[in-house]
Amino acid sequence: DAGVTQSPTHLIKTRGQQVTLRCSPKSGHDTVSWYQQALGQGPQFIFQYYEEEERQRGNFPDRFSGHQFPNYSSELNVNALLLGDSALYLCASSLQGRDGYTFGSGTRLTVV
Amino acid sequence: QQQVKQSPQSLIVQKGGISIINCAYENTAFDYFPWYQQFPGKGPALLIAIRPDVSEKKEGRFTISFNKSAKQFSLHIMDSQPGDSATYFCAASPNQAGTALIFGKGTTLSVSS
Question: Residue B1 and residue A98: Cα distance in Å, rounded?
């Protein structure tokens, strides 16, 4: 049973560019959440998608946007990249209304 | 943003010893408190979780102790092993299942053999 799959694993971008990160949830899960984890910090909630809609959003600017597809997979888009966006981006899937996320291994984004 | 404060930042324990990590929260609406374990290069993995209707939950060598009045909870790892060396995060979320988790800053545990 495949867990949460994220791609790519590593990415280097230049300031001002745009980036798209991808996530396939664990089989049977219908909800996808995205977190940003800066080096040495705990993950911070970006947003959550269910039924192809953004259901909850954390304290992130609207440069961060997302999408969920009918097969429950999801994308995270970040526009106008800043150096401070360098972090590990984690995707977590769950079943709507149930506790317990399953996290992927993340995408390490470096902005230079 | 509501905070979850975690301590200590790092911890060194001898093999066979007890590792204790503490967390405190502010928001009384929080009612789900999980602990996650993260190894380098991996995402966090759920270890154990508790809701405020119980004061303690044990799963194998891992125990959560919960003090609702003090708004504190802790993770105890009994008989700590070198394989337990990882970063541990406490987290909390308000009273709706599956909503956003607020994480602590993490504790790096090293278990020496």
Answer: 23
